[in-house]
């Protein structure tokens, strides 16, 4: 729950706003905001939480009526668990209804590593299975991005949520095996990529 204060009132207000997120274990911090436009319109390197909170609809909310021919824009902020590994990437998962059928698409919007064309590259982050040490050089401790839906269709009802992926670390079975002096089990992967997920932001279809 993303609450302004650690009080009963603030916690319940955050839950009523649905301003929540989840992780698979690590204490990754994740916030997401959406709107039809942000000011200043080109946030660039100045993108910060103050601007997002002032002009954005937080995760769990619904965008208001579209003011003109604009597309939904989203800001996502993610920080690693200080006791765990770096972050590999942020993704936006878009779901929508088209001709009565549910559709889904995943977009990479920020990455710890990019190729020459600025596209996300596959993570090269080996884990030392003898002591479960993760790669200190791969990924990034903090990722943030602003993203505009390139395929927006105002006739579709849609939702958008953020997914943060951590670089690989040992699976719990591997940690347990090391503590017990046993070989890791072979019927499950030795490593895992932990994740965090935001609540969605909803966009209603426009009347045609």
Radius of gyration: 19 Å
Helix content: 10-25%
Flag low-confidence runs.
none
How would the global form be characterised?
A: globular
Percentage of residues in DSSP E strands? 25-35%
Number of helices: 3
- Please report the distance between the alpha carbons of the first and last residues: 37 Å
Order of helix and strand elements from N to C terminus? HEEHEEEEEEEHEEE
**How many beta-strand runs?**
12
Largest sheet, described in full?
6 strands, antiparallel
Give the averaged pLDDT, no decimals: 89
Give the structural class. Answer: mainly beta
Question: What would you say this structure looks like, in words?
Answer:
The chain is mainly beta and 208 residues long. It is built from 3 helices and 12 strands. Strands 1, 5, 6, 8, 11 and 12 form a 6-stranded antiparallel sheet that branches. The protein has a 4-stranded antiparallel sheet with strand order 3-2-4-7, covered by helices on one side. β5 (87-98) and β6 form a beta hairpin. The radius of gyration is 19 Å and the shape is globular. It starts with 7 loop residues before the first helix and ends in a 5-residue tail after the last strand.
What attributes does this structure have?
mainly beta, 6-stranded antiparallel sheet, 208 residues, 4-stranded antiparallel sheet
């Amino acid at each position: 729950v993303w609450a302004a204060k650690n009080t009963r009132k603030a916690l319940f207000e955050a839950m009523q706003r649905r301003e929540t997120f989840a992780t698979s274990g690590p204490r990754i911090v994740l916030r997401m905001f959406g709107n039809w436009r942000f000011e200043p319109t080109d946030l660039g390197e100045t993108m910060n939480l103050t601007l997002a909170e002032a002009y954005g609809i937080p995760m769990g909310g619904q965008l208001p009526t579209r003011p003109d021919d604009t597309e939904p824009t989203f800001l996502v902020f993610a920080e690693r668990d200080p006791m765990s590994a770096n972050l590999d990437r942020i993704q936006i998962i878009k779901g929508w209804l088209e001709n009565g059928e549910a559709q889904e698409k995943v977009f990479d919007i920020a990455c710890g590593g990019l190729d020459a064309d600025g596209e996300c590259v596959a993570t090269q982050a080996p884990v030392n299975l003898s002591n479960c040490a993760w790669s200190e050089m791969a990924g990034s401790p903090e990722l943030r991005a602003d993203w505009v839906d390139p395929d927006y269709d105002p006739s579709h009802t849609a939702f958008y949520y953020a997914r943060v992926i951590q670089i690989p670390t040992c699976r719990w079975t591997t940690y347990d095996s090391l503590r017990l002096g046993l070989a890791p089990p072979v019927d499950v992967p030795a490593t895992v990529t932990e994740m965090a997920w935001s609540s969605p932001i909803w966009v209603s279809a426009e009347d045609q």
